[in-house]
Each structure stands twice: as C-alpha cells, then as structure tokens.
Amino acid sequence: MTFVRRPLLAGNWKMNGLRAALTEVQRVAAGFAGAPRSRIDLLLCPPATLLAAASAIAAPAGVFLGGQDCHSEPSGAHTGDISAAMLADAGANFVIIGHSERRADHGESDALVRAKALAALAAGLTPIVCVGETRQEREAGRAEDVVGSQIAGSVPPGFAPNRIVLAYEPVWAIGTGLTPTPQDVARMHGFARERLEAALGAGQGPGVRILYGGSVKPSNARELMSVDDVDGALVGGASLRADDFLAIAAAWA
Ligand SMILES: O=C[C@H](O)COP(=O)(O)O
Question: ipTM for the complex?
Fold first, then answer.
C-alpha cells in the first residue's frame, strides 16, 4: 500500500497565553488563509482556556486546533482534568499526549500515555504521541532503547496509521537551542518508523506521520524538515509568535 503523508506543523503553546494572545491566532489564521495551504496541515495547541475562542478564529481559515493533554477516562470525578470529549467539544481535532514535560512533571507512564491516546481516539481526536530520550540516556548510548520502548508502550495497537501521529522530541533539545544533526534525526525517525510498524502491524509504519520537536525555529526548519522520515514539526517557543510560526510553515513553500 502506498501512503501519502501530508506534512503537519503543530504549535504547542504550553502554559503560555492569555486572551490577549488570541491576536497571534488571528495573525496565524490570516497568514495561513493566504498561503498555499494545500501543502501542509497547520495546528495550534493553545492552553485549554483559549481553545474555543482560538477555534472560532482559526478553524474557518483551515487551521486545526488541539489540546495539550487529556484524561484517560471519558468523564467523572477528576477535579482539574479535561476529557478528550471536552477538547473536541471546544473545537480540537488533535491532542498532544505524553509530552516529556508531562511525563516528568506528572510522572506519566507509557501505560497511562497509551490509555490517554485511546481516550483521544474514542473521542474522535488524533493523538500526537510524544517520545524522546534525555541527555543522559543519549550519552549512555540508550536513545534507541528508550524511544523503542516508549513507542511499544505508548502507541495503541490496532489503529489505522492515519489516526495517530508520533512526535520524536529529544528532551535535551527542548527549549535549549540545541538540535540533533540531520543524520541523527534521520536515524531516529527511521528507527521510530520501524518500531511503529511493529506496534501497528505489518505495512502500517509508512502511513504514520512522525514529527520532529526540539528547538525548531525559522532558521533551522528547512534543513530539519527536509530530512527523510520527518513529516512535520512540533514547535514550542517559536509557535508563540505568529511571524515565527508562519516563517517555519514557509519551509514547505
Ligand atoms: O512541544 C514542543 C516541544 O517541547 C519543543 O519545544 P521548543 O520548540 O520550545 O524547543
């Protein structure tokens, strides 16, 4: 089977953004509406408090919206948490799951990440499952072991490859200005695709979009996005300003 993987550029605002930041959403939407949008999917993941307002602004321009996390249960007594259905109801199409900041700050295990991905799928959302090694793990030569085991434990089996997105984010590259070499990125993405094949079933690996994340910015986007098996980016800091985010989108122009 031949798969066409449409590039996906996702902006993760993390815990940043008050209502005043909706002007940036407006600028992204205006910039994207005038761009050759057929080349890529564009996604913004603002904090949940801004999701519905951001959706009202950006969805008409063809920009997708996403959450940054969801609970593994569909509803219930979980004070402070957000269900996948709530995200969908507020206009989300995607949800980031298992980001390294949640794995570290909230002790999220692979099993919990998989349960959250399943909850997202059940609500009709596309989970963006995040994996990546720490600096110590890379220096110990364990990067592939760690990423392979995160994929095996976090990616729910039995789904069509276009229902799931994987994000490879080396933890040491997040917010540091450091990036792996294009050769390292190619090696890890190729490896991740092999492991996805094992997780999802024979022939399915080539259908999954694999995003690279970690210090992507306008000046390095074109080089990183041209690497084999890189199907887009998950961008943190450089997604907060519309100009930077749109400049990264221009990597596919
Ligand atoms: O989710 C996004 C990543 O953690 C990358 O963040 P960054 O672009 O600020 O390095």
Answer: 0.99
Structural domain boundaries, residue 80:
8-252
2 within domain boundaries: no
Q: How far is the CA of 76 from the centre of ligand 1 (A)?
A: 31
Residue 1, in any domain of the structure:
no
Pocket test for ligand 1, best of 105, 212, 215, 225 (most atoms within 8 A of CB): 215
**Cα 167 from Cα 102, distance rounded (Å):** 14
Distance (Å) from CA 202 to ligand 1 centroid:
31
The string of pLDDT tens digits covering residues 36-63 is 556 899 999 999 999 999 999 999 999 9
190 and 212 in contact (C-beta within 8 Å)?
A: no
Domain assignment present for residue 243? The answer is yes
Instruction: Write out pLDDT tens, residues 182-202.
Output: 999 999 999 999 999 999 999
- Which sign, positive or negative, has the C-alpha torsion 220, 225, 228, 230? positive
169 is catalytic: yes
Angle between the N-to-C axes of helices 242-249 and 218-225, in degrees from 0 to 180, rounded to the nearest 10: 30
Q: Is 84 within the bounds of a domain?
A: yes
Ligand 1 atom 3: residue of nearest CA: 236
Domain at 63, CATH number: 3.20.20.70
- Report the sign of the C-alpha dihedral through residues 104, 107, 108, 109, in that order: positive
Q: Model pTM?
A: 0.97
Task: Supply the DSSP string of 146-185, one letter for each residue.
Answer: HHHHHHHHHSPSSS-GGG-EEEE--GGGTTTS----HHHH
Give the Cα separation of 42 and 65 in Å (integer): 9
